[in-house]
Amino acid sequence: MTRTRTPSRSAAHRRRGPQLSVDPIACAAHGLCADLLPDHVGLDEWGYPILDHGRSSGPIGADQLPHARAAVSACPTLALRLDHPRDPS
Amino acid sequence: MTNARVDADRLPPDVRLLAPWYADQRPDDLAAHVRRHGPLPEAGAEELAELVDDAGLRGRGGSGFPTAVKLRAVAARRPRRLGSRRAVVVANGCEGEPASGKDAALLHCAPHLVLDGIAIAATGLGASEAILCVHEGSPGLEPLRRHASARHDPVPVRIETVPARYVASEESALVQYLNGGPPVPTTAPPRPAERGVGGAPTLVDNVETLAHLALIARHGPTWFRALGTPDLPGTLLVTIGGALRRPGVVEIAAGTPIGDVLDLACGPTEPVHAVLSGGYGGAWLGLHDPATLRTPLTHEALRAAGSVLGVPTLLALPARACGLAQTAHLLRYLAGESAGQCGPCRFGLPAVADDVAAIVHGTPEARRAHGRLARRLDLVAGRGACAHPDGAARLARSALRVFAQDLKQHLAGQPCRAAAGAPVFPMREPSIPHLPAQRARPGTGARSR
């Protein structure tokens, strides 16, 4: 199975960016998110996504943003969300 | 047994909510309640929030969330213009935890204290509705309806019954059920304070929390803080059970050590080797560690001891029972009580229960199951919409830690006579409310005279 990615504590990661989250009730383990965004999403043994930080992933870097958007729009149950923080610092 | 009334000043000082029971061994009707506590006070939302804030009241439904924060969150969303929705107050008396009987005991002994708390909150928030939720088939239902109909509150309390399932009484599940949906948790946000019953800002509080609120409104924060700890002021209703002489519900000052609480049950019926704190989604504490009995009942102290206060329950595990086998029973029960909405809970909990069962049976599979278990526990915790899978993972982890010696023997294939033992703790909602245990404290209780 895929291991979760351990995010580094670098300054680039601490910079606030869009956050990925999954609605665990809506999620039906289609697994497209892991295909489209392998750097941030792994799958558990039952096929459910594991994000960087458990329930929500770390900030998505600019280079990964197109992949994250693709994953969000591909989710058949609209369980994957990309939220922008309210107070970018 | 005598019917003579015991003077209030002879009651133990830490009996507040259960006073009717200790004084008279019967519930207070409205007249007796008013005689005992005086008339219903009134307070505006901000005044009430300030009182509760100063008192340091924390929710008694398990999480220990500051009640003032909830009150203010709902008050902040009260209608400021015509046509917006007025608040709703929901008193949660469902008690999904099968090991706990405290809410049923409170509703039985002091129904009007709970109804007072609902009335004070509803009036203060200018609520349009007040709902008291109890489990379907609860034997206390009819008396409760009679008590509620005897009152003349500005916002009449409606009593609703909710299916008796473990997760049905979770806050968001309760709101969804009252809105006509299934009694299962929903994704937050929105929280009930933002959008709850009928879309209105909704205050959901445990019935014990509301009963404390009714007393704080009468006697003030200083009186409330005279018992308990600075972090967890006031008294707690605790269900004590398992291998104890007099199991039941007791009221104690928060921060009372586990050993003193267990003493209220007149000691164990047989040798005991561990205590389960916090219900079936709680954690074991081993009695081989002398610190266990000295651990104060507060959220922080129990967390530091590797367990949890949760809905306060202390269950004594007889030494003849296998802790791992009992954990396997409890995990199987918790897996069956999953709402089945979130994958990691739906598939993970049965898998975790299977792994622990395989370890218990000491089959050749046991070692492989043990290896899988650590990984699977990481996969279930924190990945559901509610905390149900987290509780199951906490229980399993604590079993591996507290019963480490037994674990070693099971993995080595040594026979365990208790491996096939039946569950020692109840697996279903009890059919009658637990009645509070009689006080066994010398010179204080009604029985010692």
How would you describe what is shown here?
The complex is a heterodimer of chains A (89) and B (449). Chain A is built from 3 helices and 5 strands. Chain A has 89 residues and is of the alpha+beta class. Chain A has a single domain, classed as 2-Layer Sandwich (Alpha-Beta Plaits). Chain A has a 3-stranded antiparallel β-sheet, covered by helices on one side. Chain A has a two-stranded antiparallel ribbon with strand order 2-3. With 449 residues, chain B is an alpha/beta fold. Chain B folds into 3 domains: 213 residues, Rossmann fold (3-Layer(aba) Sandwich), CATH 3.40.50.11540; 84 residues, Ubiquitin-like (UB roll) (Roll), CATH 3.10.20; 89 residues, de novo design (two linked rop proteins) (Up-down Bundle). Chain B is built from 17 helices and 9 strands. In chain B, helix 7 links the parallel strand 2 and strand 3. The N terminus and C terminus of chain B are likely disordered. Chains A and B meet through loops of A and helix 14 of B.
Keywords:
heterodimer, A: 89 residues, alpha+beta, Alpha-Beta Plaits, three-stranded antiparallel beta sheet, globular, disordered N terminus, B: 449 residues, alpha/beta, Rossmann fold, Ubiquitin-like (UB roll), de novo design (two linked rop proteins), five-stranded mixed beta sheet, four-stranded parallel beta sheet, 40% helix
- CATH class (first level) name of chain A: Alpha Beta
Shape of chain A: globular
CATH superfamily of the largest domain in chain B, please?
NADH-ubiquinone oxidoreductase 51kDa subunit
Task: Walk across the major sheet of chain A and give the strand order.
Answer: 4-1-5
Quick one: CATH class of the largest domain in chain B? Alpha Beta
- pLDDT under 50 segments of chain A (min length 5)? 1-14
Count of alpha and pi helical runs of chain A = 3
Query: Any idea of the CATH topology of chain A?
Result: Alpha-Beta Plaits
- How far the N terminus sits from the C terminus of chain B, by CA atoms, comes to 11 Å
- What sort of overall outline of chain B do the alpha carbons produce when their principal axes are compared? globular
CATH architecture of the largest domain in chain B: 3-Layer(aba) Sandwich
Fraction of residues in H or I helices of chain B: 25-40%
Q: Tell me the major beta sheet of chain B.
A: 5 strands, mixed
The count of domains of chain B is: 3
Main structural class of chain B: alpha/beta
Number of strands of chain A: 5
Structural category of chain A = alpha+beta
Largest interface: A-B, 15 and 15 residues
| Mean of residue pLDDT values of chain A | 79
Please give the radius of gyration of chain A in angstroms: 12 Å
The second-level CATH architecture of chain A is 2-Layer Sandwich
